[in-house]
């Protein structure tokens, strides 16, 4: 038997098909391998998420996961978590993978197709995850962001900006 790729001790592939090793489905293996790739070290965490370390990723996750309701449309959003999967398929990812999907989407701007492939999800699931998590992150983290007034921004614009972009409201600078 010729082994082509090993993602982890749980996932062994042979000629594109999974060989049962220790446990888990192909989708679980892909998600696990993607998580390992993103969280491999602080450098990979910064590259994929924009956050400086795995510790920051975990601490921010702990803050955010106080309350989560997944968006399924205006009439379908769940607020009662007593029965998480009534009449539908069980959720295949955990909250941490959903969080990683969102961080990578925000940082890298990857298409939902690519993220769906990386995490073995449908495109509609990726869309729902991102919409839910971005809104959740906004609700929780917006109190930590101070937005300057338009007057403050105009006073501090560089010389060439104030003439060329006199109607500017905000400048977003991302330090990499």
Provide a descriptive summary of the structure in words.
With 176 residues, this protein is mainly α. It has helices at 26-38, 42-49, 54-64, 95-108, 112-119, 123-141, 150-156, 159-164, and strands at residues 5-8, 11-14, 17-19. The N and C termini lie far apart (44 Å).
SSE blueprint and pairings:
Layout: E1 5-8, E2 11-14, E3 17-19, H1 26-38, H2 42-49, H3 54-64, H4 95-108, H5 112-119, H6 123-141, H7 150-156, H8 159-164
Helix pairs in contact: 4-6, 5-6
Keywords: Membrane, Transmembrane, Transmembrane helix
Domain Transposase Helix-turn-helix: 96-141
Protein name: Transposase Helix-turn-helix domain-containing protein
List its traits.
elongated; Transposase Helix-turn-helix domain-containing protein; 8 helices; mainly alpha; 2 domains; transmembrane helix; 3-stranded antiparallel beta sheet; 3 strands; Transposase_HTH_dom; membrane; 176 residues
- Write down the domain tally: 2
Unreliable parts: 1-24, 79-86
General form: elongated
Count up the helices.
Answer: 8
Report the sheet-strand fraction: 5-15%
> Based on DSSP secondary structure assignment, what is the total number of beta strands?
3
Largest sheet: 3 strands, antiparallel
């Amino acid at each position: 038997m010729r082994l082509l790729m090993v993602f982890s001790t749980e996932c062994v592939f042979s000629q594109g098909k999974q060989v049962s090793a220790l446990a888990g489905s192909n989708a679980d293996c892909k998600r696990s391998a993607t998580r390992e790739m993103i969280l491999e070290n602080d450098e990979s965490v910064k590259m994929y998420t924009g956050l400086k370390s795995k510790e920051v990723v975990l601490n921010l996750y702990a803050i955010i996961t106080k309350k989560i309701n997944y968006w399924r449309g205006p009439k379908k959003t769940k607020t009662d978590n007593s029965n998480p999967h009534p009449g539908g398929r069980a959720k295949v990812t955990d909250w941490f993978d959903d969080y990683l999907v969102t961080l990578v989407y925000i940082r890298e701007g990857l298409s939902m197709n690519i993220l769906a492939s990386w995490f073995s999800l449908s495109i509609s699931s990726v869309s729902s995850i991102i919409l839910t998590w971005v809104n959740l992150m906004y609700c929780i983290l917006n109190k930590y962001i101070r937005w300057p007034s338009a007057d403050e921004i105009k006073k501090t614009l560089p010389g060439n900006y104030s003439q060329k972009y006199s109607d500017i409201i905000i400048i977003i600078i991302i330090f990499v």
